[in-house]
Design brief:
This protein is mainly β. The protein contains four helices and 35 strands. The strands form seven sheets. Strands 9-11-16-15-14-17-18-10 form an eight-stranded mixed sheet, with no helix packed on it. Strands 27-29-30-31-32-33-34-35 form an eight-stranded antiparallel beta barrel. Strands 1, 3, 4, 6, 7 and 8 form a six-stranded mixed sheet that branches. It is elongated.
Length: about 500
Amino acid sequence: MPSRRCNETKRLRFILFLLTFLSAAVALPAQEKIEWEPVEGADHYRIEIRQDGKLILETRSDKPRIPLFLPPGEYDFLVKVINTFGKIASVGEWSLLKITVPDIPFIIDFLPMEIHEGGETVFRTRVSGLVSDPGESTVFMLEDTEGKQLQLESELSATTPEGQNGDWKEVILKARRQEPGQGLWTLVMTNPDGRENRMGDALVVLDRLRPRIRKFNPKKIPAGEVHNTAVLEITGMESGAIVEFSGPSEFQATLLKKSDDGILEYSLNLQDVETGWYSVRITNPSGDSDYKEKVFEVLPAEPTPEEIAAANALKIDDREPRPIPEFPRSVFGGWHFTLPVGSTSEYFNNGYAGLSLGFSQKIQNDLIRRIPGFGGFAWDFTFSYSHNKTTFPLIEINLNRYIFLLGLNYTTSFDFPLNLIVRAGGGFGFSIYTSPDYSRDEWLGPFALRDLDSLDFIVRFGIGARYDINTRWYVDLTCDFSATFYMSRTAWSIQPRLEGGWRW
């Protein structure tokens, strides 16, 4: 029996020396465990742990491991193998054990939480438990709802945010080659030891917007006032969009209020600014922009009550004329049809072929421009062509009328696209008769077609509406009442007209 115990003891000692313990200097995070290779024939193990030579823990373990509930620090540990007889079969060597506090990753916040697709992908996050050792550092990723991950570049912020301490750090994150697409993204923070923390819905990527400038009101603002309220309406505006005003001179524009539907209210300081037209540009952070030329006009400063009283005392010829319009000239063209009325319908049928071309010029006479309300007057010169068939029962005869008119027109100047237009004019026209069946010189009984030709005096009066598409283009929808004076009678007709024009 003793010989058997001696052999067993020797075998246990031999196995113990073949054990693979932890290295001589082992670093373990707190709350981990110590493990070693199990020894065959061992009944249990006894472990001693000392710090600075003082025994602080001696415990028994039936398995080749023990949990650690020690605070961080450096310790010496020793493992003893106890056989089934309760005797020490073998003793290992003292080993150094380092216990460290684990780095627990935690995301405090993430900004911005909302961007548009294609926008700038630079973010700031505050975290604790950051690992930045050479070769091993914390990894940040964005993960979408389908599990797709995009790794982010990270670097510590160069600035020290207010209130920062040793427990947390501010990190700058940047997207690498691929940018996050539209949808919800989770921020994932992973430390080298595998611990991770997630912030769900940290980032929302919205569809890329394309801005459009819709309206600006008012369109005319007198100079001189420090506070002028103006409203700008924009669609497709992203958060952080930049609005810029440009024109003859710079001025201060202060944003007073901004609504979710793109209505921006500004206070414009127009003191000491130059008069003229001003434009607006909006640029979204994602890169798209819109530019609208001549959005509003700065007029000369309104006179003071004293200046008004002094001006009223002067004769009208001594008053300062209004500025010359920016686009005083225009060309226009369009289509019309002719409806004979009264006794004229006994001779001619309705004609649906007609065209007109013309030129118009605002009246720039200083006297006219001094009179209030006379700024809408202009003169025009129009060439018009119309085609009618006569009611002659046996022969098809066509009337081709070429008209040249000099006239005067007046357009109201209300501050909205639709305005009233009134015009009148007079001139002369050539009435040329043709037939698809006979030549103009062929004798048709008592007359030839050429005998019917005439040079006529013509007057017209028209009324309608003008729609300003912008400061350059416009459309007129009018109805003219026209009279042609022959030697023996007068022919009356109504001419509805649709014309478009361009100013310069």
